[in-house]
Amino acid sequence: MSKNKFLFTFYLSLILLSLLVFCLHLLILYFFGFPLLDHMIVLAYLLNVVLALIIFSVLYWFREKWRDQIGFLFLGGSMLKFLFFFLVFYPFYNADGNMESLEFTTFFVPYLVCLLLETFFTARMLNS
């Protein structure tokens, strides 16, 4: 697979999978009678997708030069996402002194989707 095609495949996969999961997330919220756009759900998906795009792009650009450090860069990217969670979402979610499971899943679902896809593509990148 050509270099640009691999990167494009990741971008397209990430965006399409995130949109699919977002729609399923909203459908589940609707089915259980929860408000659809509460708890900064749109921001959670957008921020996770944008950070995943940036982090994977950095990994991709440095895949040959820093091949032995890609794992550490990957972990650093995951820590960056958690930093954004604690800076952007946690104060909002914990404003009442209690973080509900619905608030946690609003951030964690897109985080997990992006992380799994990043992991899969990073492994493919390193194995090629």
UniProtKB/TrEMBL annotation:
Transmembrane annotation, as ranges: 7-33, 39-60, 72-92, 104-123
Keyword Transmembrane annotated: yes
Source taxon at top rank: Bacteria
Keyword entries, A-Z: Membrane, Transmembrane, Transmembrane helix
Protein name: Uncharacterized protein
Organism for this UniProt entry: Arenibacter palladensis
